[in-house]
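Ops channel
N.P.: pipeline sanity check, posting one input/output pair.
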């Protein structure tokens, strides 16, 4: 199946290169060299970047978009296991010498990203030791997130998991407002739509969020953190310690 990306190029001047925190952490020379091999594209919510088992042809460094990494559960359902926003990149298997995607990658939030083809990315890894080191640390953070999500899915109730997901999304898109339907949220959390409706309704009744026709606004960040399970804080602490410690 050919990925349904429907990407459009946008002028490179539209966004500051530091819009992605992995790129911002690189020495200026290394960052400029990497960006010279990138193009900036507009990612559209719902579009597929790569299917499970397909060859990874591009890496993406989101600036204000959001990429969901999803695994099928039983041939019919699916479960989101990781989120990639401006804090990271999509295409980590290439860093490990593997060009086959172990997960389904779909755009969860529309926005821009830097895109580089896989061959050029391999060249950049050889060119920049700083890039290798930064991505090694990011791999650790991503592995931690995958493990935390597995535990969270098994042990925590839907309302706590939804609160965690909303906070994670906020951190990655740097906005308290975003759009996602009940259907997509159900896929993200691996539950029925009725479960999402009940959890979102509870958070809304507590005045932590407002939610109407897929438009979500976080109204009380501190309250949402209290409503979330401990997995959110564990993820955040790991990220801050490893990538910005």
């Amino acid at each position: 199946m050919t990925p349904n990306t429907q990407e459009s190029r946008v002028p490179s001047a539209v966004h500051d290169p530091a819009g992605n925190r992995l790129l911002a952490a690189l020495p200026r020379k290394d960052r400029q060299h990497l960006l010279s091999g990138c193009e900036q594209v507009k990612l559209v919510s719902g579009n597929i970047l790569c299917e499970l088992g397909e060859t990874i042809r591009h890496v993406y460094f989101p600036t204000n978009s959001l990429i969901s990494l999803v695994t099928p559960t039983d041939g019919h359902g699916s479960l989101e296991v990781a989120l990639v926003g401006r804090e990271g990149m999509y295409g980590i298997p290439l860093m490990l010498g593997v060009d086959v995607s172990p997960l389904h990658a779909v755009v969860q939030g529309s926005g821009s990203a830097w895109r580089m083809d896989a061959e050029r990315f391999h060249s950049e890894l050889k060119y920049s030791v700083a890039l290798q080191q930064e991505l090694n640390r990011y791999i650790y953070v991503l592995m931690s997130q995958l493990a935390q999500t597995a535990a969270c899915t098994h042990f925590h109730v839907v309302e706590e998991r939804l609160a965690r997901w909303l906070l994670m999304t906020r951190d990655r898109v740097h906005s308290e407002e975003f759009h996602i339907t009940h259907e997509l949220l159900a896929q993200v959390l691996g539950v029925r739509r009725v479960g999402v409706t009940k959890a979102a309704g509870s958070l809304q009744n507590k005045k932590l969020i407002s939610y109407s026709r897929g438009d979500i606004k976080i109204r009380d960040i501190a309250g949402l953190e209290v409503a979330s399970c401990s997995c959110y804080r564990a993820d955040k602490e790991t990220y801050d310690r490893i990538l910005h410690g």
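N.P.: looks fine end to end. The longest strand covers residues 66-72.
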